[in-house]
Each structure stands twice: as structure tokens, then as C-alpha cells.
From TrEMBL:
GO terms for biological process: amino acid biosynthetic process; aromatic amino acid family biosynthetic process; chorismate biosynthetic process. GO terms for cellular component: cytoplasm. It is found in: Cytoplasm. The gene is aroB. Residues 69-178 form the 3-dehydroquinate synthase N-terminal domain. Keywords: Amino-acid biosynthesis, Aromatic amino acid biosynthesis, Cobalt, Cytoplasm, Lyase, Metal-binding, NAD, Nucleotide-binding, Zinc. Binds 1 divalent metal cation per subunit. Can use either Co(2+) or Zn(2+). Belongs to the sugar phosphate cyclases superfamily. Dehydroquinate synthase family. CDD domains: DHQS. It comes from the Bacteria. InterPro entries: Dehydroquinate_synthase, DHQ_synth_AroB, DHQ_synth_fam, DHQS/DOIS_N, DHQS_C. GO terms for molecular function: 3-dehydroquinate synthase activity; metal ion binding; nucleotide binding. This is 3-dehydroquinate synthase.
Length: 356
């Protein structure tokens, strides 16, 4: 088992390893203390039949009273409606401020549960048990929680750190190859931002079916996220580095009507952004070729079917834009990204350079 300690507004551990789920109760008891009595396990309709029994038995063995809230799997459930159903459920089951939530699932479950934990009774503890690679390497750490609004993704939420993150790598066995790739894209992104060794490791071992590879990838990616979040928990500076590939990635997701998944879009976005950075003279070395080589080894489709003008339009409707300038994440060398401001008026030119 690997252990990483995150020190943000709250200090907590990320435990990664095989066989953790059946022992989750003991770890959760240790993290939450003796006073916590009732736990609501929040999970979706795909994950519930796979893993909720093991988790709940383990919680009960550790003396918790466990209740379960199951919602329909999918991004559409990351909504105010599901949040409201969940909050009402917690109230009906009479959870108190000394009780807690456990998110068992992917990023949708983690974001929704975290926001419910942040708002129920003005805040109760919660634990993340990520079951997608994306949730393990990205969304379960760092305390960003929330739901989507009609007006856009992640527009309502809170910063609320978990008390523990427990990643049982055995849960990767039931994940589709496409979902594994979505997580891998974020791990490769972490390497591109700050860890050249991780990039070399991935290049040598692009095997997501190997639990040792999963453990190594997630450990290094979480370590990078730890460093960035500790420096800038509320996302006003360095945390923006985690957005490498995301300006274009979000634009591609949007242009595709969200038929291209987030990780797949970020993979293409990273390639476009690094090619453009090189053409603009902002990189010390060519980061595009080595990055594309890794992504191709995993089987990511890297062709972008959208024009610079379509992508620019989509990118400019993003909520993260401030005024007439835009902050881009630029690879200056392999494993080393920096923030760079670009006037909005030059975005199309930048994207064109990246597509060429
Ligand atoms: N909070 C953050 O910092 C942060 C960061 C990145 C992404 N996110 C959010 O994460 C979400 C995407 O996360 P996701 O891709 O994990 O989505 P998800 O939670 O919808 O999971 C994807 C699919 O996999 C299924 N699933 C989950 N675990 C499984 C398993 N072990 N075996 C089989 N199927 C399984 C789910 O039921 C779902 O159908 C988005 O809403 C995104 O906004 C948040
Ligand atoms: Zn992402």
C-alpha cells in the first residue's frame, strides 16, 4: 500500500493499493475517529452492484451504521436535483454533524458527494473511495466539489477537502478501456506538467491492465497534484497548471457535443497546445513529438476534426476566461509547464499554429 499525505486546509491521507475495499471500514474509522456513528455511502447505479456490499460490510464490521444512496450513473446526475434528493435523504435518515458521507465511484460521485458534505448541516466530513482512474488520479484529491447547472459544468460548488482518499486498485478490473484511458490522460498530463520521470515510465510501460503500473501512475500523479494544491488550494495561481491541455480539451468536448470524453479531448488538447507553444517560440525543446508518441502507444486518437475558428469560439465561451486575456499552460520542456498569458485576440492564431 502506498500512502501520500496531503496538507491543505485539512491534512489527510491518500491510500492506494490492492485489497483495500474489504478493509475500508478500519481505515475510515481511523481517519474519522470513534465519534462518527452513521455513514451514508453515496454511489451510482453501475458501481453499487459491483462494490457497495463489500464497502458496507466492512463499515459495519468497524461499528458504523451504514445507509446507502444510489443515483442513476452518468454526468446528467451531477445536478442540483440529485444534490437535493441526497440532502433530503440525509435529513430523513437523521444524519447528524458527527456523521459522515463516503463517495464510492467516479468523479461524478465524488464531486456530488463532496458538495453534499460541504453543505449538509453547514459541513460534515466525507471520504473519497474513487473507482475510476480519473477520480483516483485527479478528482478525488484537492477538494473541488460541485454540480453542473443548466448554464454550464461545475458552476455551483465548494472547496471541501475529504478526510481520507482510499483507492483500491482492484476496482480498475471492471473499468472499460476508454475509461482507463480518460484517467491515463490526466496522469500523462501530470507528468507533462512536472515529472519527466513519470513520462519516461509511462513510455516504457503503457499497460493499464497491470496493477503495478496503475499504482505507480496514480501515486506520481497524486504527488504532483499534492504539490500544486498545497501551494494554491483555491485555484488562483499555480493550480492552473493542472489545466494543461484543458483550454483546447474543453473546446473539443464542446464542439463534439460531449461525444468526445474529457480525457480523450485533453489528450488532443495537450498535443495542440504544445505544438502551438513551440511555434510561438515559448518552448525550449519540442515536447509535442514525445508526448504524441506516448499518447499513441496508449491508442489515443489524436486527430482533431475541428477548425481553429470553431475551437476558438468554443474556448471563448469557457467560464475560466477573465477579461481580454487568457491564461494558457505551456510546456517549456518535457515535464516542465509554465503559465503564460495570451490576449484573447491571438487565440485563433495560437490554435491554428497548434493544428498545423
Ligand atoms: N473535482 C475535481 O477536481 C475534478 C477533476 C476532474 C474531473 N472532475 C469531474 O469528474 C467527472 C468525471 O469523472 P469520471 O470519468 O470518473 O465519471 P463518472 O463518475 O461518471 O464515471 C464514469 C463511468 O464509469 C462507471 N464506473 C465507475 N467506476 C467503475 C468501475 N470500477 N467499474 C465499472 N464502471 C465504473 C460510472 O458508473 C460511470 O458510468 C466529471 O463530472 C468532471 O467534472 C472533477
Ligand atoms: Zn481534466
Amino acid at each position: 500500500m502506498e500512502k501520500i499525505t496531503i496538507t491543505a486546509s485539512k491534512t489527510y491521507e491518500v491510500l492506494t493499493g490492492s485489497g483495500l475495499l474489504p478493509r475500508a471500514g478500519a481505515y475510515i474509522r481511523q481517519a474519522l475517529g470513534e465519534k462518527v456513528r452513521k455513514i451514508c455511502v453515496v454511489t451510482d447505479s453501475n458501481v453499487a452492484p459491483l462494490y457497495s456490499d463489500a464497502l458496507i460490510s466492512s463499515l459495519e464490521e468497524s461499528g458504523f451504521v451504514a445507509v446507502k444512496f444510489v443515483f442513476a450513473a452518468g454526468e446528467a446526475s451531477k445536478s442540483l436535483r440529485t444534490l437535493s434528493d441526497l440532502l433530503e435523504f440525509l435529513a430523513q435518515r437523521q444524519l447528524t454533524r458527527s456523521d459522515a458521507l463516503v463517495a464510492l465511484g467516479g468523479g461524478v460521485t465524488g464531486d456530488l458527494t463532496g458538495f453534499a458534505a460541504a453543505s449538509y448541516l453547514r459541513g460534515i466530513p466525507f471520504v473519497q473511495v474513487p473507482t475510476t482512474l480519473l477520480a483516483a488520479v485527479d478528482s478525488s484529491v484537492g477538494g473541488k466539489t460541485g454540480v453542473n447547472l443548466e448554464a454550464g459544468k461545475n458552476l455551483a460548488g465548494a472547496f471541501w477537502q475529504p478526510s481520507l482518499v482510499l483507492f483500491d486498485t482492484d476496482t480498475m478490473a471492471t473499468l472499460s478501456q476508454d475509461l482507463l484511458l480518460d484517467g491515463a490522460a490526466e496522469a500523462i498530463k501530470a507528468g507533462a506538467i512536472a515529472d519527466k520521470e513519470l513520462l519516461s515510465y509511462i513510455r516504457e510501460k503503457p499497460d493499464l491492465k497491470d496493477p503495478a503500473v496503475i499504482t505507480h501512475l496514480s501515486g506520481r500523479a497524486i504527488e504532483i497534484k499534492r504539490r500544486v494544491v498545497q501551494e494554491d488550494e483555491r485555484d488562483i495561481g499555480a493550480r492552473q497548471l493542472l489545466n494543461f491541455g484543458h483550454t483546447l480539451g474543453h473546446a473539443i468536448e464542446k464542439c463534439s457535443g460531449f461525444s468526445v470524453s474529457h480525457g480523450h479531448a485533453v489528450a488532443i488538447g495537450m498535443v495542440i497546445e504544445s505544438r502551438a507553444a513551440l511555434q510561438f517560440g515559448w518552448s525550449r525543446e519540442d515536447c509535442t513529438a514525445p508526448l504524441s508518441e506516448i499518447l499513441k502507444k496508449f491508442g489515443f486518437p489524436l486527430d482533431c476534426p475541428y477548425s481553429a475558428s470553431q475551437l476558438t469560439q468554443a474556448a471563448l465561451s469557457d467560464k475560466k476566461r477573465q477579461g481580454d486575456r487568457l491564461t494558457l499552460v505551456i510546456p517549456v520542456a518535457q515535464g516542465d509547464c509554465q503559465l503564460k498569458e495570451l490576449p484573447v485576440s491571438r487565440l485563433e492564431e495560437f490554435i491554428k499554429a497548434g493544428l498545423s
